[in-house]
Write a sequence for this structure.
């Protein structure tokens, strides 16, 4: 049964930063919002973001930084894969977003005078990262959660917490399919029903669980995105998966050690012996207490290889270097897959003040105090740059000639500082190929290209919600819903999809068998998928292994088709929900693997040992994947990108050539 | 000793177990289960081979892979709420060996260091059970509405930065703002009782978390605009004067929020508010 209201409504799926920012913006325009989330929105995965949020600010501006420089860093950091105009717009908006969060009461760290404090973060030589202790994401989402609660108490927002999105309701639009609502399930009562809406905003985050253990929260399965994908929404750059260089290995998940640990002076090293030719070799006692390893036997490999950026090189580079040291050179701590991240040279009081939250996580889960003992870390799957494929309308700023890589401190092109990257309020900004379905935040493939810079994720989520939220309200008023509101559609349109989902559930429930073997146990299938994806599709990829991975996904699909559900309950059946998600994750995994195979180059987070160079002529393009329901399989093609503003340059972060003499001191970091 | 280390002597003693606990030992998970609201509770035991650094979550995940009780009876995966597994989302709160805490940060080595040790898991008792270890904490969020726990901004369109703030004030507010609505303070509170009837939510004891949030927003330059309304909410039935001063809340708060300080501060503020109201009549 669909709700019979004649009011135009918006559905937001996901209550993290992107979903909450969109909800606030749309409710503020007087349009009612139905907000769906697997968890109480305050518990969304955004709480895990630690380090901060980037924005040009008055201090860095006077040192030569600008919004344009932030844009430039983001494009360069993303290895020139992102469409450029939306990124420019995001960078332009960043200072306004910080101001807004400040007004909402986010306790940003302060200087003695009471201004917002700043820290250094990867991919920049300027301090442009704002932060609230070491739990910036938590503080930001709380501020937005509070504003949503305010609209909820005024009746403009209706929350559907513990409701799972199952499928978009699609019907004929003017020329193509259009979305008119969703089918969702109450995770407690197991009721399945449809909801009408004139626009659906997917703000469902990443897909870390496709890789089994990751830094993501347990609900970040990617299933919601996968369901849209299977319903016909295109998925862009699935192979662009960020592996965070510094995670704490754990039995249930990989806990993030924030990049701010490096930003605040953390040094990455392994015990090693320097050979007479200057190269480094394995240390015989690499598992000994690190305090007993003399300075001369500590190999600070990031500082040696990247004298300019040192320990704050971007994530993909740090990840590959750590992986290389451990896996290829066998120089990991205690010969294992781990290196030291060392903060013990900093004042413990200072560390407590700046990093307490994240250091506490390490101590809580490992048992050592990082202020006095170097942490043991290893890369872990962290973020999906890829996501649902979206479009946008360019703003007016279109220079005749693309500019070469922008130089720090030089004057930005005229007009670029006032939001002209995207046309404000254009109805299609961040809309997918299905009319009425938008994708905001991590589930949106835009902004981060082939690699995301630290502290840009929170920004892109809130920017999508606020800036593109206006696009949604305009679409509701002036687009198709103005002429043909979802409330006027016949109930049969919705019943068809409810029936489809009920049939799927009935089929799963018919397989219940207690004590099923691992062969057909959904949890085992999910775990094996994660292990396989981690082995084949993370730090280093290669054609043969990827082909094997695709074949293995096929065989997991076969096992999924004959699985045995382990719980038949008609009330709060979490096994059913997880099992259904595993089925959808398999298709997303296939997109990741096939995208990785098709992109025969190395770019950003995507590194192919058999194609180590970036190949702009063939692959400076978006990987566009489509799902074919008839064959239950994924196809890959490449589409051109918008690269009008910055011409591609070699992205090496000033890596020192092995033959060159040791470089001089690091460039001065802008001090605040 | 680090500032991060718990002050509770029992917790410190438990942490010492980490050094001696052997990987691969068998631990019995004794779990209080319930199939749904109104259904009777029952206990089930599961054996788990515990690897190094295992926590309650990873063991529940292991049980899901093959849910068979110690008696050899095939069962179902245990139902529980979880999220970040880093103790910042508040989801996975439960009662472990009789004390309320997050299960993600509960290392098995601390609690059950020896072969054959038992670990008891129960749902929180102050909220209605949904199924097994999952309870309905809607009331906790409702209480945040009672104290209008938000800053009343004009809107989300650009209108300059927020107020300046001293680092000291920021540090005070930051700690209060780390409250993740986990419900530990309510589980431990003798004044807070299970109340499934929604019509009674607005008159029952509001809880330490909400009182502390009222303090947080009353400290903010713009948040203050609603200070009188918050104090009004705290002065009525179920308000700050219902606190029996048992001080259990502050002992179980995983974020070490100075909840009793907040209760005292808001208690004083409510008195001033009432006196002021009396003279302004």
């Amino acid at each position: 049964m669909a709700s019979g209201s004649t009011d135009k409504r918006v559905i937001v799926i996901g209550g993290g930063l992107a979903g909450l920012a969109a909800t606030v913006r749309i409710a503020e325009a007087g349009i009612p919002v139905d907000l769906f989330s697997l968890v109480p929105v305050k518990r969304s995965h955004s709480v895990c973001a630690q380090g901060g949020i980037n924005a040009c600010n008055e201090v860095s501006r006077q040192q030569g930084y600008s919004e344009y420089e932030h844009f430039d860093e983001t494009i360069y950091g993303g290895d020139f894969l992102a469409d450029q105009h939306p990124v420019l717009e995001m960078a332009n908006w960043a200072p306004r977003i910080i101001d807004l969060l400040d007004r909402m009461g986010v306790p940003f760290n302060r200087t003695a005078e009471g201004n917002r404090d700043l820290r250094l973060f990867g991919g920049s030589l300027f301090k442009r990262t704002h932060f609230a202790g070491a739990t910036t994401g938590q503080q930001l989402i709380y501020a937005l959660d509070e504003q949503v609660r305010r609209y909820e108490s005024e009746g403009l927002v209706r929350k559907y917490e513990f409701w799972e999105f199952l499928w978009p309701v699609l019907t004929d639009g003017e020329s193509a399919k259009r979305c008119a609502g969703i089918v969702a399930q109450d995770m407690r009562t197991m009721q399945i029903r449809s909801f009408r809406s004139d626009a659906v905003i997917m703000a469902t985050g990443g897909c870390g669980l496709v890789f089994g253990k990751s830094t993501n929260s347990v609900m970040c399965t990617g299933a919601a995105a996968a369901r849209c994908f299977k319903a016909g929404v295109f998925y862009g750059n699935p192979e662009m998966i960020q592996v965070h260089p510094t995670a704490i290995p754990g039995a249930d998940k990989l806990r993030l050690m924030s990049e701010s640990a490096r930003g605040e002076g953390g040094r990455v090293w392994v015990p090693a012996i320097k050979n007479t030719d200057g190269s480094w070799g394995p240390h015989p006692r690499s598992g000994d207490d690190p305090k007993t390893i003399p300075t001369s036997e500590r190999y600070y490999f990031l500082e040696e290889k990247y004298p300019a950026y040192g320990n704050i090189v971007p994530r993909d580079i740090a990840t590959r270097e750590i992986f290389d040291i451990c896996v290829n050179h066998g120089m990991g701590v205690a010969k294992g897959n781990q290196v030291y991240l060392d903060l013990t040279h900093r004042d413990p009081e200072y560390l407590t003040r700046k990093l307490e939250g994240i250091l506490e996580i390490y101590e809580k889960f490992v048992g050592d105090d990082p202020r006095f003992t170097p942490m043991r870390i290893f890369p872990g799957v962290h973020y999906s740059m890829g996501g649902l494929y979206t479009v946008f309308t360019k703003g007016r700023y279109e220079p005749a000639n693309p500019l070469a890589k922008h130089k720090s401190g030089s004057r930005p092109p005229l007009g670029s500082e006032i939001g002209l990257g995207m046309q404000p309020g254009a109805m299609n900004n961040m809309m997918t190929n299905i009319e009425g379905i938008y994708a905001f935040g991590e589930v949106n493939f835009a902004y981060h290209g082939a690699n995301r810079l630290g502290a840009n994720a929170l920004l892109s989520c809130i920017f999508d919600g606020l800036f593109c939220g206006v696009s949604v309200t305009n679409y509701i008023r002036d687009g198709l819903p103005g002429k043909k509101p979802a409330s006027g559609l016949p109930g049969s349109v919705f019943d068809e999809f409810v029936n489809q989902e009920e049939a799927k559930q009935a089929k799963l429930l018919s397989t219940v068998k207690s004590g099923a073997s691992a062969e057909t146990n959904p949890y085992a299938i999910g775990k094996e998928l994660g292990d396989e994806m981690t082995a084949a599709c993370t730090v280093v990829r290669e054609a043969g292994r990827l082909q094997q991975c695709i074949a293995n996904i096929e065989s997991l699909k076969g096992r999924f088709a004959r699985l045995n559900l382990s719980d038949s309950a008609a009330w709060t059946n979490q096994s059913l929900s997880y099992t259904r998600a595993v089925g959808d994750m398999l298709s997303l995994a296939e997109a990741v693997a096939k995208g990785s195979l098709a992109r025969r180059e190395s770019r950003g987070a995507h590194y192919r040992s058999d194609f180590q160079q970036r190949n702009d002529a063939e692959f400076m393009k978006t990987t566009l994947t489509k799902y074919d329901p008839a064959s239950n399989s994924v196809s890959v093609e490449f589409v051109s990108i918008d690269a009008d503003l910055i011409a591609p340059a070699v992205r090496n972060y000033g890596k020192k050539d092995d033959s060159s003499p040791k470089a001089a001191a690091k460039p001065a970091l802008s001090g605040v | 000793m680090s500032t991060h280390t718990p002050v509770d002597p029992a917790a410190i003693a438990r942490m010492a177990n980490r050094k001696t606990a052997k990987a691969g030992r068998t631990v019995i998970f004794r779990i209080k289960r319930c199939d749904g609201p109104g259904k009777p509770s029952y206990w089930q035991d599961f054996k788990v081979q515990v690897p190094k650094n295992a926590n309650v979550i990873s063991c529940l995940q292991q049980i899901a892979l093959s849910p068979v009780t110690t008696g050899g009876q095939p069962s179902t995966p245990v139902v529980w709420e979880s999220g970040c597994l880093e103790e910042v989302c508040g989801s996975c709160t439960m009662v472990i060996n009789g004390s309320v805490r997050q299960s993600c940060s509960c290392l098995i080595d601390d609690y059950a260091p020896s072969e054959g040790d038992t670990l008891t898991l129960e749902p929180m008792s102050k909220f209605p059970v949904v199924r097994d270890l999952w309870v309905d904490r809607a009331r906790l969020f409702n209480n945040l509405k009672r104290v209008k726990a938000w800053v009343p901004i004009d809107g989300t369109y650009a209108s300059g930065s927020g107020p300046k703030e001293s680092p000291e004030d920021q540090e005070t507010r930051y700690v209060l703002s780390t409250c993740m609505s986990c419900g530990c303070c309510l589980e431990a509170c003798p004044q807070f009782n299970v109340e499934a009837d929604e019509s009674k939510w607005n008159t029952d004891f509001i809880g330490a978390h909400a009182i502390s949030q009222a303090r947080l927003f009353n400290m903010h330059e713009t948040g203050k605009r609603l200070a009188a309304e918050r104090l009004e909410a705290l002065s009525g039935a179920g308000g700050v004067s219902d606190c029996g001063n048992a001080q259990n809340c502050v002992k179980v708060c995983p974020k070490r929020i100075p909840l009793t300080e907040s209760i005292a501060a808001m208690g004083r503020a409510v008195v001033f508010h009432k006196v002021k109201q009396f003279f302004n009549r």
In short: Residues 574-598 of chain A form the longest helix (25 residues). Confidence is low (pLDDT under 50) at residues 1-6, 404-410, 658-672 of chain A. DSSP finds 17 helices and 22 strands in chain A. Chain A touches chain B through 81 residues (CB under 8 Å).
